[in-house]
Amino acid sequence: MKYYKIHLLLAGAVISTAACNSAAAPKQPETTIKDQSFTFARVVQQPLAGSIRLPGALAAFQKVSIYPRVNGFVKNITVDRGSRVKKGEVLLVLEAPEVAQQYYAAQSKYLQAAAMYAGSKDNYERTVATSETPGTISAHDLELAKARMLGDSALMNSEEANLKAQEVMRSYLTVTAPFDGVITERNIHPGALVGPDTKTDDTPMLMLEQEDKLRLIVQVPEMYSGQLLKQSAVRFGVNALPGEEFKGNISRKAGTLNDKFRSEAVEIDVQNGKQLLKPGMYAEITLPLNGSATAMVVPSSAVVMSTEKKYVIVVKDHHTKWVDIQEGNHHNDSTEVFGDLQVNDRVVVNATDEIKENILIN
Q1: Do 215 and 255 sit in the same domain of this protein?
Q2: Do residue 283 and residue 230 come from a single domain?
Q3: How does pLDDT run across 201-216, given as a tens digit for each residue?
């Protein structure tokens, strides 16, 4: 950005009054602003790419609380806190004799219904074969045989569905891992009575978390959320590992702003094969920003911050003017600003609040 200098000379005015009745009025003191040298820059319009540092937190990529689906006693538990498990691996076994008895009862009813259907089907097929000889079987008897077969078929299907339901209930007695991960919490021991009807609080039997892949979650302020692109590479570090730098890519954006904090949740997938990082760690993240195509760019020193507002000092028609702005990205000595500015407007580079409005510039 090119700067250039001009000199500003403000001469004080001498105020005097004409003599009246040969008596002169007292001479007013002369007010003079000394010569000042200002540097000016032109406003340009361009996106200002940069970066922003924000805090975030690591979380397990998948996390599940394991609760009992049926009432029963803990017969055997094969894992403890810190155990690494594979998908489908048995975690614990419950014992519930009534569940097993219900399964066997359902199985017996299904076998009985299947036998009845087989008999009625055979009877119907024989009746159909006999009816081919005229006068041997009435049409009414043929319809009765068919109706009995269809009724037995429906009963068999119903008992089969009940058997499958009881089979599923029995499978709940064996709890397996839904994905590869680490047991991070265990709250039961063999002999404990567990189940939906016995749970007195929200404490799970086990907690399973996936730690070889993590989610890095960061809340991005509203003014920067539109400048992030998926798959953008990010860098971050954690306090627990000083000097270490980790990398990841932006994988997901919430697409909506948090009503309370006016920020958008952004997630970065982090590969953690070496298990150096742990869920719950706080991280300091450097996010790349693409800048806004409608932003005006001025030197950072041209922005004046008072207790009431932010503004730049623009020279228009040879006079100074304060223009309120909002800041955007910062990069080196340049700043994105948004306000009533035009391309090629002249702004004071080393601006201060001592430079008032409407000062004449020669």
Answers
A1: yes
A2: yes
A3: 678 999 999 999 999 9
Residues in the chain: 362
Domain range enclosing 153: 97-172
Whether 122 is covered by a domain: the verdict is yes
Residue 358 lies inside a defined structural domain of this protein: no
In whole angstroms, give the CA distance from residue 42 to residue 45: 10
* Residue 294 pLDDT > 80: no
Segment 63-72 shows an average pLDDT of 92
Q: Which long-range contacts (CB under 8 A, 24 or more apart) does 349-355 make?
A: 349/3, 349/38, 349/39, 349/40, 349/41, 349/299, 349/301, 349/302, 350/38, 350/39, 350/301, 350/302, 351/301, 351/302, 351/303, 351/304, 351/312, 351/313, 352/304, 353/304, 353/306, 355/313, 355/320
CA–CA separation, 150 and 204 (whole Å): 47
In this structure, the answer to whether residues 216 and 280 fall within a common structural domain is yes
78 domain residue, yes or no: no
Q: How far apart are the first and last CA of the chain?
A: 23
User: What is the pTM (predicted TM-score) of this model?
Assistant: 0.66
Domain CATH number, residue 319: 2.40.420.20
Q: Per-residue pLDDT tens for 124-143?
A: 999 999 888 888 888 898 99
In a domain, 69, yes or no: no
